[in-house]
Structure formats: structure tokens, C-alpha cells
Amino acid sequence: MADDPQRNFRSAYYEKMGFRGVEEKKSLEILLKDNPLGILPPHSDSHALVGGYRREQYQDIKEALEVMRYINSSTPSTLVYLRMFQLENQVLPRCSEMLPPESEDFLAVSRAMEEIVDDPVDCYWLIKCFITQFYTKFGDSVPHLPKSLEHYLSQEEPRLLAHLKSTGALLQLPYSLWFRRCFAGCLPECSLQRVWDKVISGSCKILVFVALEILLSYKIMLLGINRPEGVVNFLSNIPQENTDAIVTKAVELWQKYCGNPVHAV
User: Fold this and answer.
1) Homologous superfamily of the 140-260 domain (CATH)
2) At the topology level of CATH, where does 27-138 sit?
3) Stretch (H or E) spanning 47
4) Each residue of 152-205: pLDDT tens digit?
5) Are 85 and 128 in contact (CB under 8 A)?
6) Is pTM, for the whole model, over 0.70?
7) Which of 78, 95, 218, 249 is at a distance of 20 to 30 A from 47, taking alpha carbons?
8) DSSP strand E in the chain: where?
9) Residues 6 or more apart from 253 whose CB is under 8 A from it?
10) Which is nearest to 84 in space by CA: 65, 105, 104, 106?
11) How far is the C-alpha of 175 from the C-alpha of 79, rounded, in Å?
């Protein structure tokens, strides 16, 4: 499997985290049934102990938020995860009703992760680790991704780029949806997992090529839209039927421009 150029990059990540010989699986949920808590220590004897600690920590944080009246029994689970994350990172707002602008990025990722993982403890830990890793590793790169997209679009479809510029749509493309939420809320779960696999493996550049392939796939339609808000509305709600094909072509573009970019930023 290690010699397969189309190998699922999630496998490399699991091995890095201490798993050995994990078969490729299409669903994180399936894997979590065997390894209950996303990122675990390399020694299997420690899994149950660490898993217990994490479950206790989850309950302690949740109970603390309930005592402080930031959450209650009717609070949506995604908002619970957000408040837990804020408390752990010491950025909990003073007002329980306050939601910073960047909160929607977290909530979008949380909603997508809930479609993949059933257990709330597993779900929170995966959300927390994914977002922490993403912004720790790629936080400085994210603001430059729109320019990178513009560059590759000029190579692949300069006519479309010129149209997006002339209509004023280029500056208004849904960059937050694509690059800050990693396509959570844009792609369905099966396609989204394939994109997140690449991000987890060490590259955020895949996000650029998914966005690029979306633009290329709907080129004819986009060329017929002359108002920037029309472009943004369409790209924020793309059809869900052929997203697997879009991701496959995006990976091909990724390999075309970056070689075999297992760790290309």
C-alpha cells in the first residue's frame, strides 16, 4: 500500500500518530470504532487510560460551562463544542450571548464533523485537533491562498479569470468557505473527507486546487453571470452531485503543479 501513488493520505497520518497497518477506510467513523479517540498515544496499552482521561476532561469542561450558564440542555452540540474550545484556549467571551466573527468557521467545521462522527466526545476531540493543527501549521499561509488561486487560474483558464476580474467577482469569491472552513458547508461529507485527508497529511495547498477545479467545472455557467453577488451565491451553494469528480480532478491538478506533494504547503 505504501507504494500506491493514489494512497489515502489519512493512512500516513494515522501511522505518524502511532497506528500501524491501519487499512484505508472511507469513513472516520469506521476507524473510530476500533480506535475510540482520534489521536491516541503510540502504545495501545495506554489507549483506554488516555481515552478515559479525555472523556473525564470533556465532562468537566461541559459541566463548568453549565455552571457558568454558557450552555444548557437545549444548547446545540456545535455551540457546546465552540464554548468548550474557547474555555480551553482561554478566549471565552464575557457575555454568553457573544459570538466572535470567526466562530462561524469553527461551527461550520463542527457541523461537518458531526456528519462523520457519532460520539460527541470523539467529535469534540477531532474538531479541536483538526482546527488547532490547521491554524498552528497553516495560519500564516491561509491569507495568501486567494492569490495562489488567481495564479493557477491564470494558467488553466485566463478567460475565466479575466471575466471574474472585470465583473468584480474575483475579490468576493467565498474564500472563507473554501480556505478558512476547508470546504465545510460546501462539499458533502464523502468528498469533504478526501480533502481533509490531504490537509491532515500536511498540505493546505489542496484547498486551492479544489477551489480551482470548482471554478473550472462550472466555467460556462460562471461566464454567463455578470453580477458578483450571483457568482458568490452560486459558488457558495454548488450542486452536490459531482463533487467526488471535482475532488479527483483537484488532486490531479495538485499533482500536476506540485509533483507528489505529500507535505507541500
Assistant:
1) Ypt/Rab-GAP domain of gyp1p, domain 3 (1.10.472.80)
2) Helicase, Ruva Protein; domain 3 (1.10.8)
3) helix 47-67
4) 999 999 999 999 999 999 999 999 999 999 999 999 999 999 999 999 988 899
5) yes
6) yes
7) 78
8) none
9) 152, 156, 209, 212, 213
10) 65
11) 23
> So where are the chain's domains?
27-138, 140-260
In a 3-state reduction of DSSP, which class is residue 215? helix
Backbone phi, then psi, for 201, in 5-degree steps? -75, -15
Chain centroid offset of residue 71 CA: 25
Asked which of 229-233, 244-248, 256-260 is least confident by mean pLDDT, the reply is 256-260
DSSP 142: G
CA distance 128 to 57: 13
Q: Is 227 exposed, middle or buried (0-12, 13-18, 19+ CB in 10 A)?
A: exposed
C-alpha separations of 199 from 6, 97, 139, 219 in Å = 15, 32, 13, 26
d(CA 18, CA 149): 35
Q: How far apart are the first and last CA of the chain?
A: 24
Say which residues have a Cβ less than 8 Å from residue 254's Cβ, sequence separation at least 6.
198, 205, 206, 209, 261
CB distance 113 to 127 below 8 Å: yes
98-155: per-residue pLDDT in tens? 888 889 999 999 999 999 999 999 999 999 999 999 999 999 999 999 999 999 999 9
Instruction: Using alpha carbons, select from 90, 85, 87, 91 the residue that is nearest to residue 125.
Output: 85
- SS3 label, residue 187: strand
Cell numbers of 119, please? 460520539
The residue type at 260: N
What pLDDT, on the 0 to 100 scale, is given for residue 2? Answer: 39
Q: Check for a shared fold between 27-138 and 140-260.
A: no
